[in-house]
Amino acid sequence: MISLAQTATERAKRVRLIIFDVDGVLTDGGIYIGPEGELFKAFHCRDGMGITLARKAGLKTAIITGRTSQQVAYRAGELHIDAVHQGCMDKRAAYRELKAQFGMMDEEVAYVGDDLIDLPTMLQCGFPAAVADASEEVREAAAYVASFPGGHGAVRDVIEYILKAQGRWQETIASFYDVTGEMATETTNGLAQ
Predict the structure, then answer these.
(1) Taking Cα atoms as reference points, which of 8, 6, 52, 46 lies closest to residue 186?
(2) H or E element, residue 130
(3) Which terminus of the chain, N or C, has fewer Cβ atoms within 10 Å?
(4) With 70 as the cut, is the pLDDT of residue 189 above it?
């Protein structure tokens, strides 16, 4: 079990894998249904850039979500997320699979959640994080609570916190300050938002 006495910064320094819930974390939690029964989800570009920056810094990324949707698979593909587990009502099994797949220990895993279904995984991982509008129980279990609600930049906020704790933020964003135009090519050839 992870020591609760460790500061959030100490815990964030160990992170090598970040796992995200989808509804209420990568989205605002709304599920929009069209006239033909088709589903729509809105994802925030800053969260996408945050995931891209995490991958650029060498962190692994994954999704564990209770629902199954083509929109999640599509967005995960756009962002080159390393692993996607959909339809997981017991997220602990998917969490164990991801740890084994990437050779991680609990202390090296961050999990970003918003609701009660996320608690068992949050209580096991090394760096549990919550979105600003998460349930009270989830916020209380979090080592870090984002300043933004789910679907509105919370994931980016958590990723920035982790990269800054690891002392990797400036090197990760340095290419955005390149005025020679080299970043423009990199952006169009692989950095998704």
Answers:
(1) 52
(2) strand 127-130
(3) N
(4) no
What value, to the nearest 5°, has the Cα angle with vertex 83 and ends 77 and 87?
Answer: 95
- Token code pair at residue 39: 């589903």
Which residues lie across from 129 on neighbouring strands? 112, 144
- The pLDDT of 76-86, averaged and rounded, is 97
Radius of gyration of the chain (CA): 16
178 phi and psi, to 5 degrees? -75, 115
Q: Are 169 and 61 in contact (CB under 8 A)?
A: no
Given a contact cutoff of 8 angstroms between Cβ atoms, the answer to whether 114 and 21 are in contact is yes
pLDDT reading at 59 higher than 50 = yes
For residue range 119-178, what is the model confidence (pLDDT) as tens digits? 999 999 999 999 999 999 999 999 999 999 999 999 999 999 999 999 999 999 988 887
Q: DSSP secondary-structure letter at 135?
A: -
Measured distance CA(162)–CA(57) in Å, rounded = 11
Position 96, amino acid: R
The domain defined by 8-174 folds into Rossmann fold (3.40.50)
98 neighbors 83 (Cβ within 8 angstroms):
yes
